[in-house]
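Holo prediction — 3-iodo-tyrosine.
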Amino acid sequence: MAPRLIPLSEYREYPIDEMRLRTADLLAEMRRRRSVRHFSTRPVPRDVVEDCIRIAMTAPSGANRQPWHFALVGDPEVKQRIRIAAEEEERSFYENRAPDEWLEALAPLGTDAKKPFLETAPYLIVVFAQLHGIDDDGTKVKHYYVNESVGIASGMLITALHHAGLACLTHTPAPMRFLNEILGRPPSEKPYLILVLGYPASDAQVPELSKKSFARACQIWDPEIA
Ligand code: IYR
């Protein structure tokens, strides 16, 4: 089928000075982002969170199949069920399943099996990856690059929440299949991560961490730079 093509009318180019300013501003903003584990119970406007999900939904995806589903959970009873099930998994992870090397890697973060933030935070967004789609007559639709697509959308969601002035935590209790049952999602959807979000607690603390240097993260191959 020949694609229907339309002009790229929404693209905007900026003067180079403005390009630099915009990028430097966003860099400074993103450098202020931290994963937060201590949330205030203060409510956050749901319309803002919904718009952040709409931002994630603009992500590119394999064959534009958009293989994601977002469950936005603000119901205290549902959050409590998620906390109880997640803590059960986490206890078996920290007590039995985690190899020493993994526990050592987590030590600087100070994490443990207790996940009170799953109840204190006003919202959880459970991101599901749709391994395949289901069309209107119930037939399977193939999805492509599911992990990549959902990862990109999740990154955009984290960026959007931070940009809105909300804090979040990417939380991945393993295994996460209990989320299908609690949230009534079909087996074709695999829980990908839980984004815990809200305002940080007024006394929230974060581990002292650093990001690797640009030189270690990026090698430049460009004839202009010797
Ligand atoms: N899922 C566990 C363990 C954990 C794993 C990694 I990798 C982290 O960066 C942080 C935590 C937990 O949530 O505690």
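READOUT: The chain has one domain: 36-199.
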